[in-house]
Amino acid sequence: MDINDLRSIMTVVSLATFVGIFWWAYGKGRKSRFDEAANLPFADKDVDEAETRLARRD
């Protein structure tokens, strides 16, 4: 086994890892979970307003 065999194996492992991550990220079963996570920054409006009022009071 020489260096070129190791390079070939690493190329195949890297491609398999990329395809696995791609499948995980764009799979149909995860869309609702990712949509929910994408809206999390907008869900804390009431908390942000309360913190703003407290900060202005100081």
Structure overview:
- It comes from Oryzomicrobium terrae.
- Pfam families: FixQ (PF05545).
- The longest helix has 24 residues, at 3-26.
- The chain has helices at 3-26, 31-38, 45-57.
- It has one domain (3-57).
- With 58 residues, it is mostly helical.
Sheet-strand content, in percent, reads: under 5%
Task: Write down the secondary-structure element order.
Answer: HHH
Helix percent reads over 70%
State the shape: elongated
CA-atom Rg in angstroms: 23 Å
**Main sheet overview:** none
Report the uncertain regions.
none
Structural class: mainly alpha
The tally of helices reads: 3
DSSP E strands, number = 0
Question: What would the average pLDDT be, to the nearest integer?
Answer: 85
- Calculate the terminal CA-CA distance, rounded to whole Å: 70 Å
| Integer count of domains | 1
Outline the fold blueprint.
Layout: H1 3-26, H2 31-38, H3 45-57
Transmembrane segments: 6-26
Protein name: Cytochrome c oxidase cbb3-type subunit IV
Pfam family, one: FixQ
Key traits:
mainly alpha, 78% helix, Cbb3-typ_cyt_oxidase_comp, membrane, 58 residues, 0% strand
Brief overview:
This is Cytochrome c oxidase cbb3-type subunit IV. The chain is mainly α and 58 residues long.
